[in-house]
Amino acid sequence: MSAKAEQMDKATEPERRSMGRLNPSGHVPLYHQIFLILRNRIYGGDLSEGDLVPGEQDLTTEFGVSRITAKRALNELADAGLVVRERGRGTRVVKRPPAPAVTSSIDGWLENISLMGLATKAQVLEFEYVPASDDITLALELEPGTEVQRAVRVRWLDQEPMSYLVTYVPAEIGRQFERSDLDVKPLLHLLERTGVDVSSARQTISATLADSEVAGALSIHAGAPLIEVRRVVCDSRERPVEYIRVLYRPDLYHFEMSMRRVREESGPRWTATTTPSVPADGG
């Protein structure tokens, strides 16, 4: 069977009878769906260091897939550095999964990863000045056609591509730093270096699927789920100075929210609690 045929492996009748959590009609290949399930078991603690991972026959029985699909899922785990496969001894979880997930409070920005002792780097993929599209014009409160700086980057965590960032900054601000600056400093720091007094932001969090371009940049498959954050950053005069769209791999980035129960005249309700601020990366 060719690699392309394996990737597009469709569920046979036995597979359909016990598909469980797999989606045979989705865009994500079956072997990669199994890989994601097994990876979650490892990161979630269901499978610990040294534990045997279900073998090809076990996965065939559990998910109702072909043996070649099960084998490819295990090979992907090995390629990700999560397991070691030994002939005659099975597949075991390695000592340390390579890339622990970064956790950020849901009411905050991306915390400064360097403070967490994690190795990160950014890679600039695109850098240009373009007329603002209608949605960017609206987000940054600009006149139609105003020039903006557009940059596309990938942020890496422990040698794993973690996030795909697309940022827009008014040209008069963006021209005060160079493309090379974005390779070494977070955009928020560059904005402040130009004299922008960053004061507030509003953001939305949702889910989306990776298109082929994003999938290639993040080393995932097209159709893989992603966390999507859209944020408008404002200065102390409430003037928008940055619009950013970030796509996070959910296995490497988590959001948390602290809540408490309060009682009011209208009845009890949950309210979010504010966590101590941490210097923000800001993309």
TrEMBL record:
Superkingdom of the source species: Bacteria
GO biological process: negative regulation of DNA-templated transcription
Gene3D superfamilies, sorted: Chorismate lyase-like (3.40.1410.10), Winged helix-like DNA-binding domain superfamily/Winged helix DNA-binding domain (1.10.10.10)
Stored PROSITE patterns: HTH_GNTR (PS50949)
MF terms in GO: DNA binding; DNA-binding transcription factor activity
Biased composition, class Basic and acidic residues, residue ranges: 1-18
Keyword DNA-binding: yes
Assigned keywords, A-Z: DNA-binding, Transcription, Transcription regulation
Domain HTH gntR-type: 28-96
Residue ranges, annotated region (Disordered): 1-24, 264-283
PANTHER family: MANNOSYL-D-GLYCERATE TRANSPORT/METABOLISM SYSTEM REPRESSOR MNGR-RELATED, MANNOSYL-D-GLYCERATE TRANSPORT_METABOLISM SYSTEM REPRESSOR MNGR-RELATED
Name of this protein: GntR family transcriptional regulator
Organism expressing this protein natively: Roseibium aggregatum
Lineage start: Bacteria, Pseudomonadati, Pseudomonadota, Alphaproteobacteria, Hyphomicrobiales
